[in-house]
């Protein structure tokens, strides 16, 4: 069932809409501060995010006998792009090897992690795609084995609930 | 594995020939508060009408336009949905039909392709293509966040909130797979920012050294600040038409061939595919390379760029790009994306991309110079305008008008800049045709355009 948002309805504007940011020239530049909340659905991929909170790494696999590929997807997809069949959930090993990496130093605003940190792309046995994540400790090298750790105690309900450590 | 169906590789065939007859742009700046967005667009549009030796007056040209294709990457930046309607009205083109186009970094290229389709199909004989971005309403880090939402917000955006961090893993993979040194990467930044010194519209020109590039602040390892393009405000416009209009409007029209390709938004979702071969490539030539890397395009290459070039070369009848192209403008949003593209469009075979820079071919007076405009690194990345402005730069080169557009005092005055005492003409000698690449996301959308001197 669709649920309408029933939070408080406020008409109060936060900030100073008339504040002038720049009037050094013949023009005015005016500030418009605001804060915004989105209600974002995980839709049919919800089991993946639930899985993280239970310490499980869930992918989807196309099992349609008519499909030429029967790929296993992580990030998961509810529908197979090759044959359009509905995929099935499979638990995949919470371990793999580093395929690519970077150290993120300068991040965009709103980053929920502390920088700098190592971002890694992990190749997992039996999975046809590569999975992006972050390395909590150690220094990445291409081909290095890693295993996943899950944030089951204090989940953020985001992709940040999984991270990797050297195996 | 991605497999093509029988119909998927058809080379586009336009019903009518398509020509470019004029281009225009604004100066490009990090902060451009003197003008509202529509005023900025008007500035580039008027340059297009007034400064291209057109045979009709600006008002007469305006009276010929039947359709407009508008490029804008992100409504977030302007905080205004459907800017197209405001711009179109401001340019006085109501009630002619217009379409807004958004394909990330390739938005400008996609707007050009859309304009081509309108001419080729007969929908219009004379088309305005215009694009813009105003990235100066927010601070840089907020802008970085906006751009990063062009990555997958469920599985990627939170990992960086900045686009360099989605290119950086590719840079590391590429370096290991194809033996690319950071010095070669830095040379791209030095070259393009150096060429921007001759461009009055350039946002970040500079005579840098390789050492300066390598010592600049790290954004995402191994990509440093001087290897990344910046936030820009500005606009660009181009006028496209059919053959009859081209005769009517210009003594020096340039014929246009163009195609596009797309690929996954998440680079990590790329699956193996057989490499579509360019006209200058032989079956089997990549067998060894594939044995080593295991998958193509992997993190090293851009399938969308290869696919766009595959189609565009065949549309234009190009057999050997390095020999037949006189110059190229590539989408150097990051040094690494520039280098990756050399292989995709056949300036070098895959695996030998660094040699395009190291051999000198990519430099002015080299075999096929790239980014003489200053590129995105040196001149601008006002995203929706970028692919249009790149086309303009190739177009002016082919018309032999580089010196006027980049050297005339009028443009330096307009940009409120002093023309450097060591200003250097980068006009290619007697160019016949050039190519430009407009590239989005981590290769999610790419257009490949070829401009050829018509008569
Ligand atoms: Zn399937």
From TrEMBL, chain A:
Q: Where is the ChsH2 C-terminal OB-fold domain?
A: 89-150
Where are the membrane-spanning stretches? none
Note the InterPro entries from the entry: ChsH2_C, NA-bd_OB-fold, Thioester_dehydratase-like
Pfam families linked: OB_ChsH2_C (PF01796)
Name the PANTHER family for this protein: BLR3430 PROTEIN (PTHR34075)
Q: What is this protein called?
A: ChsH2 C-terminal OB-fold domain-containing protein
Its ancestry begins with: Bacteria, Pseudomonadati, Thermodesulfobacteriota, Desulfarculia, Desulfarculales
UniProtKB/TrEMBL annotation, chain B:
Domain Thiolase C-terminal span(s) in chain numbering: 302-402
> Molecular function (GO) terms listed?
acetyl-CoA C-acyltransferase activity
Q: Which residues form the Thiolase N-terminal domain?
A: 18-204
Tell me, what's a Pfam family for it?
Thiolase_C_1
Protein name, entry field: Thiolase domain-containing protein
Tell me which species this is from: Desulfoferula mesophila
């Amino acid at each position: 069932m669709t649920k309408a948002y029933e939070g408080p309805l406020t008409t109060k504007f936060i900030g100073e809409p008339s504040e002038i940011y720049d009037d050094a020239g013949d023009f005015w530049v005016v500030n418009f501060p605001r804060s915004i909340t989105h209600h974002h659905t995980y839709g049919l991929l919800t089991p993946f995010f639930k899985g993280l909170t239970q310490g499980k790494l869930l992918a989807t696999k196309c099992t349609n006998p008519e499909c030429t590929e029967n790929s296993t997807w992580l990030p998961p997809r509810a529908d197979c792009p090759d044959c359009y069949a509905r995929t099935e959930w499979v638990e995949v090993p919470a371990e793999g090897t580093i395929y690519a990496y970077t150290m993120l130093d300068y991040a965009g605003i709103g980053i929920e992690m502390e920088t700098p940190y190592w971002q890694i792309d992990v190749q997992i046995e039996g999975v046809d795609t590569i999975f992006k994540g972050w390395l909590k400790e150690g220094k990445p090298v291409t081909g290095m084995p890693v295993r996943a750790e899950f944030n089951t105690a204090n989940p953020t309900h985001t992709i940040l609930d999984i991270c990797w450590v050297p195996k | 594995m991605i497999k093509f169906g029988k119909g998927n590789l058809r080379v586009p065939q336009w019903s009518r020939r398509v020509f470019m007859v004029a281009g225009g742009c604004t100066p490009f700046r990090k902060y451009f508060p003197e003008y509202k967005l529509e005023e900025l667009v008007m500035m580039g549009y008027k340059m297009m009408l007034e400064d291209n030796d057109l045979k009709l007056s600006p008002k007469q040209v305006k009276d010929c336009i039947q359709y407009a294709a508008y490029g804008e990457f992100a409504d977030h930046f302007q905080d205004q949905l459907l800017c197209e309607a405001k711009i179109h009205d401001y340019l006085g083109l109501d009630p002619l039909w217009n379409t807004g186009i958004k394909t990330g970094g390739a938005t400008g290229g996609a707007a050009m392709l859309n304009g081509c389709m309108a001419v080729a199909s007969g929908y219009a004989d004379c088309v305005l293509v215009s694009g813009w971005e105003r990235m100066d309403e927010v601070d840089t880090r907020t802008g970085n966040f906006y751009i990063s939402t062009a990555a997958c917000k469920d599985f990627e955006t939170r990992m960086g909130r900045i686009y360099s961090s989605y290119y950086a893993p590719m840079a590391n993979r590429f370096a290991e797979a194809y033996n690319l040194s950071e010095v070669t990467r830095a040379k791209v930044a030095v070259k393009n920012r150096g060429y921007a010194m001759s461009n009055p519209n350039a946002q970040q020109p500079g005579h840098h050294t390789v050492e300066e590039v390598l010592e600049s602040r790290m954004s995402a390892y191994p990509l440093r600040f001087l290897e990344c393009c910046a936030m820009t405000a500005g606009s660009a416009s181009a006028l496209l038409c059919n053959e009859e209009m081209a005769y009517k409007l210009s003594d020096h029209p340039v014929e246009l061939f163009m195609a596009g390709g797309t690929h996954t938004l998440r680079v990590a979702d790329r699956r193996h595919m057989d490499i579509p071969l360019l006209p200058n490539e032989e079956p089997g030539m990549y067998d060894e390379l594939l044995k080593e890397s295991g998958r193509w395009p992997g993190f090293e290459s851009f399938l969308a760029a290869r696919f766009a070039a595959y189609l565009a070369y065949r549309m234009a009848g190009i057999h050997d790009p390095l020999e037949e192209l006189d110059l190229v403008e590539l989408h150097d949003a990051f040094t690494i994306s520039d280098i990756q593209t050399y292989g995709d469009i056949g300036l070098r075979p895959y695996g030998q991309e660094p040699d395009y820079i190291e051999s000198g071919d990519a430099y002015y007076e080299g075999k096929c110079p790239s980014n003489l405009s200053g590129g995105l690194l040196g001149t601008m990345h006002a995203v929706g305008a970028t692919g249009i402005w790149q086309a303009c730069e190739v177009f002016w080169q082919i018309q032999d008008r580089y010196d006027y557009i980049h050297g005339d005092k009028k443009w330096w005055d307009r940009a409120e800049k002093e023309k450097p005492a060591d200003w250097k003409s980068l006009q290619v000698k007697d160019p016949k045709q050039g190519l430009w690449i407009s590239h989005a996301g981590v290769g999610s959308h790419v257009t490949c355009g070829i401009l050829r001197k018509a008569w």
